[in-house]
Amino acid sequence: MKRYCIPERDAARFVAQMEDVLDLYALPPDPLRPLVCMDEASKQLLGDAVEPLAMKPGVPKREDYHYARGGVRSLFMFFAPHVGWRRVASSARRTREDWARQIKRLVDEDFPQATVIRLVCDNLNTHAIASLYQTFPAPEAHRLARKLEIHYTPRNGSWLNVAEIELSVLGEQCLKRRIPDGDTLDTELAAWEARRNQDHSVVRWQFTTEDARVKLRRLYPTV
């Protein structure tokens, strides 16, 4: 158990939530019940304090090590691995209201045809039905809640969230450089999102519940 930093008392809960997510990934795609994984990250905005030297043939772009801080933006990633669709949005905050408004957009704009959205996310306190009721009038919160089937990844099990993989791709392809302000960030995110969606880039999850019972047997409580 020490290898995974999971206390003995939490082992059963970890295993139950892990198998729930793995079983979900193994289900066939259903257009009326789409699988969507969501995760959050942040991006520090940095501008150039000194104008960089432009790239020339045989010479890369050169930047001075001094920079201007522009604050931090929160990133919300929604990723449907079966269909190769993703949406990433930035926000000045990451409160309950911010999450709730992203969920409303997911339900009403991204998947309006869905009867229910099977949403995988972590146990952050903002990722809860209560956030909808805190943000919207009760009838609207109730309507949105009925469209969600939330599956939480276990604590210390963020690797189970496919959206984390997509955030890693975003970081490498788009965010691994200085971005000075929120408007520029939003423009870059939109361009990256459009390209990835046009390519229908998917994730083919291979790790199954059966694999977990063999490879992670140390996590399973002994009866």
Task: Describe the fold and architecture.
- Helix 3 packs antiparallel against helix 4.
- The radius of gyration is 20 Å and the shape is globular.
- The chain starts with 10 loop residues before the first helix and ends in an 8-residue tail after the last helix.
- A 5-stranded mixed beta sheet has the order 3-2-1-4-5, sandwiched between helices.
- The mean pLDDT is 89.
- It has helices at residues 11-26, 96-110, 129-135, 138-145, 162-175, 182-199, 209-215, and strands at 35-48, 67-80, 85-91, 117-121, 148-152.
- By secondary structure, the chain is of the alpha/beta class.
Topology:
Elements lengths: L10 H16 L8 E14 L18 E14 L4 E7 L4 H15 L6 E5 L7 H7 L2 H8 L2 E5 L9 H14 L6 H18 L9 H7 L8
Parallel strand pairs: 1-4, 4-5
Antiparallel strand pairs: 1-2, 2-3
Helix pairs in contact: 2-3, 3-4
In short:
The chain is of the alpha/beta class. 38% of the residues lie in helices and 20% in strands.
Highlighted features:
single chain, 223 residues, 5-stranded mixed β-sheet
Strand runs, count? 5
C-alpha-based Rg, rounded: 20 Å
Estimate the mean pLDDT confidence: 89
Runs in which pLDDT lies below 50 for 5 or more consecutive residues are none
- What distance separates the N and C termini? 15 Å
Proportion of beta-strand residues: 15-25%
Largest sheet: 5 strands, mixed
Q: What gross morphology would you assign?
A: globular
Helix percentage: 25-40%
Trace the largest sheet across and list its strands.
3-2-1-4-5
